[in-house]
Amino acid sequence: MEIRSTTDEDRDVFVDTVHAAFGRFAETPIEGGGLWWSALEFDRCLLALAADGRPVGTAAAHSFELTLPGAKLVPAAGVTAVGVLPSHRRQGVLSAMMRHQLAELRARGEILSVLLASEAPIYGRFGYGPATYTARLTVPRHQAALAVPRARQAPDAAVSGSDDGSVEVLRRAECGEILEAVYDRYRRAQPGALSRPHRWWALRAGQPPISPAPRYVAVHRDAHGVPDGYASYSIGEGNALTVDETIAADDAGFAALARFALGHDLVSRVVFKHVPAEHPLRWQFADFRAGEVSGDTDWLWVRLLDVPRALTARGWFTDGELVLDVEDPFLGERNRYLLTVRDGKGDCVPTDREPGLSLDVRDLGSIYLGGTAPSTLVRAGHIQAHRADAATLADALFRAERSPHCLHWF
């Protein structure tokens, strides 16, 4: 078997092969793009070829930026389009492609890669761990009333849910530049968020609101008239209003957009498709049981390629020292590191000191963004704590300023 990089000349072969791997047919190209694969970077795609030269597997990577705790930005390879023809599964094709891809990513100097897992059991063995989570919130229209905030605020403090801005309804085709600019500001401050390169918007590649699918967009403007949030939505079967994604600069802006959606006439229920963990929206309903949570699932999976550089790249919010014994079974590596955090900065160096925690690289990926507590994985039997206080210290060290969340689909 041969694994090789592709060029633009391989586009049709690559697209046909990945669709065949999933038993689907490629969509008919439309003018101006709009197909998920139109944003692929063909110098970052791989083809696996059988002995007779036939393509039997694919893998690709997008060039993104990932926002880390502390609003730190790092390049991240967004792994996608991974598939093997049904006739060649269970023959080592996938493992060979993933090993080849990880070697290429390291050679490029990238410190981590991310993906969205089509099936949860697949990617843990390659060192990826679930790191952000998302859920769907469904609210019947008759239970949609929001409560008046009860907290007393200082005169110069913003009340959560109060808003001096405005909401304007636009068609998707009218506000592309606004969406791109608002999303980019949002993702730079949100841990776990990925960039959406301009070419994605220009090609209309992906899911709404990037794609050309018809959508209305509620654009939120601050008190000065500057766009600082949006909600992309449509009304479908059963008069359900579905919000693809809600982007807001702060909780007040989010509440204003939620209030707009919940107050829409001739709607039976409102479905918010991507609600972050621990978001205050459920607590803002007059009826706490109004919001039904469903589809609670993993979203972004993280894989560290260079542990010391990755740990020093993110921001930290608690001082301390912790020795990590990290095993990478897929690449056959095991290393021990001393993580030292002082004044928001981390230092990570090899050490021979006794470990506080022993963990698989997939588990390090899960706790890296602060969305999974190390103590949870200790209790699950995946991370070994060698000292009584090691898990508590790790929880304090790895926490983020807020829950990581990723909206981008790729």
From TrEMBL:
<dbReference type="InterPro" id="IPR051554">
    <property type="entry name" value="Acetyltransferase_Eis"/>
</dbReference>
<comment type="similarity">
    <text>Belongs to the acetyltransferase Eis family.</text>
</comment>
<protein>
    <submittedName>
        <fullName>GNAT family N-acetyltransferase</fullName>
    </submittedName>
</protein>
<dbReference type="Pfam" id="PF13527">
    <property type="entry name" value="Acetyltransf_9"/>
</dbReference>
<dbReference type="InterPro" id="IPR016181">
    <property type="entry name" value="Acyl_CoA_acyltransferase"/>
</dbReference>
<comment type="subunit">
    <text>Homohexamer; trimer of dimers.</text>
</comment>
<dbReference type="InterPro" id="IPR041380">
    <property type="entry name" value="Acetyltransf_17"/>
</dbReference>
<dbReference type="InterPro" id="IPR025559">
    <property type="entry name" value="Eis_dom"/>
</dbReference>
<dbReference type="InterPro" id="IPR036527">
    <property type="entry name" value="SCP2_sterol-bd_dom_sf"/>
</dbReference>
<dbReference type="InterPro" id="IPR022902">
    <property type="entry name" value="NAcTrfase_Eis"/>
</dbReference>
<feature type="binding site">
    <location>
        <begin position="82"/>
        <end position="84"/>
    </location>
    <ligand>
        <name>acetyl-CoA</name>
    </ligand>
</feature>
<keyword id="KW-0012">Acyltransferase</keyword>
<dbReference type="Pfam" id="PF13530">
    <property type="entry name" value="SCP2_2"/>
</dbReference>
<dbReference type="GO" id="GO:0034069">
    <property type="term" value="F:aminoglycoside N-acetyltransferase activity"/>
</dbReference>
<dbReference type="InterPro" id="IPR000182">
    <property type="entry name" value="GNAT_dom"/>
</dbReference>
<dbReference type="Pfam" id="PF17668">
    <property type="entry name" value="Acetyltransf_17"/>
</dbReference>
<feature type="binding site">
    <location>
        <begin position="90"/>
        <end position="95"/>
    </location>
    <ligand>
        <name>acetyl-CoA</name>
    </ligand>
</feature>
<feature type="domain" description="N-acetyltransferase">
    <location>
        <begin position="1"/>
        <end position="155"/>
    </location>
</feature>
<feature type="binding site">
    <location>
        <begin position="118"/>
        <end position="119"/>
    </location>
    <ligand>
        <name>acetyl-CoA</name>
    </ligand>
</feature>
<feature type="active site" description="Proton donor">
    <location>
        <position position="123"/>
    </location>
</feature>
<dbReference type="GO" id="GO:0030649">
    <property type="term" value="P:aminoglycoside antibiotic catabolic process"/>
</dbReference>
<feature type="active site" description="Proton acceptor; via carboxylate">
    <location>
        <position position="410"/>
    </location>
</feature>
<keyword id="KW-0808">Transferase</keyword>
